Amino acid sequence: MKVKAENCYFSLSKQLLEKDNHKFQYGYVEKNGTSRKYETSVDWLISADIAAKSIAVTNIKPYPEDYEEDNHFRLYTTDIGMLVGMRDFSFKRSIIENSLRDSSKVGFWEAAIADVLIKKNYSLHFYKNDSSKREIEFVIIKDGNVIPIEVKGARKSTISLNGYMKSHEETPMAYKIMDGNVGVSENRVVSLPMYMSMFI
Fold first, then answer.
1. How far, in Å, CA of 74 to CA of 24, rounded?
2. How far is it, in rounded angstroms, from Cα 108 to Cα 103?
3. Are 52 and 118 in contact (CB under 8 A)?
4. Are 98 and 109 in contact (CB under 8 A)?
5. CA 119, 124, 130, 135 torsion: positive or negative?
6. 52-101 pLDDT, tens per residue?
7. Among 177, 145, 178, 174, residue whose Cα is nearest residue 162
8. Can you give the pLDDT at residue 99?
9. 176-19-133 Cα angle (round to 5)
């Protein structure tokens, strides 16, 4: 069990930072790896508070657990420092030099925001609609409301989030976490710089 759990944990470096679709895949743990072999190891990491699961939902509505796709999930470390520690010095230097924000790969920033939300005791979900190509990194319950959160590594438009908010007026607000200043759009999207995510 220990070796399998370690393999699952250390695979998160590739799962989160080297591929665009951050869905947890057992094939990254071991070639031809399966849920049957590693599912209990993932559960152990979660129960030990070493990792946290974000489950895909098909709808952003109250009681997100009613719309969960149990086999479609992302796994985040509960300590962003441990995730950074899995990388070489060039990766750490790019964080210090702020060059990761210019990269198309924002997996690190998603993991960092997940770390903040986990520490604030939010249950994590994410929304992905293959037919509309919409994806929103996090869905949380805040003050009794379902709140979507999109993360951008740079000052880029949030097409999925803006489209969702335009067609769902019942959603009181949403957050856009990015490299920029505080602001509020006409679509009820609150923009926050990365460091202010702790105030969500």
1. 5
2. 10
3. yes
4. no
5. negative
6. 999 999 988 888 999 999 889 999 999 999 999 998 888 888 888 877 76
7. 174
8. 76
9. 55
Query: What is d(CA 140, CA 123) in angstroms, rounded to the nearest whole number?
Result: 6
Architecture (CATH level 2) of domain 50-199? 3-Layer(aba) Sandwich (3.40)
- Beta pairing class for 124-129 and 134-142: antiparallel
- The domain spans of the chain are 50-199
CA separation for the pair 138, 135 (Å, rounded): 9
pLDDT one-digit tens code per residue, 25-40? 999 999 989 999 999 9
Rounded CA separation 96/102 (Å): 13
- Mean confidence (pLDDT) of the chain: 89
> Per the confidence metrics, is the pTM higher than 0.85?
yes
Q: Give CA–CA dist 168/81, Å, rounded.
A: 37
- Which amino acid is it at 153? G
Residue 104 has pLDDT above 50, yes or no: no
40 Cβ partners below 8 Å, 6+ apart?
Answer: 1
Residues in the chain, overall count: 200
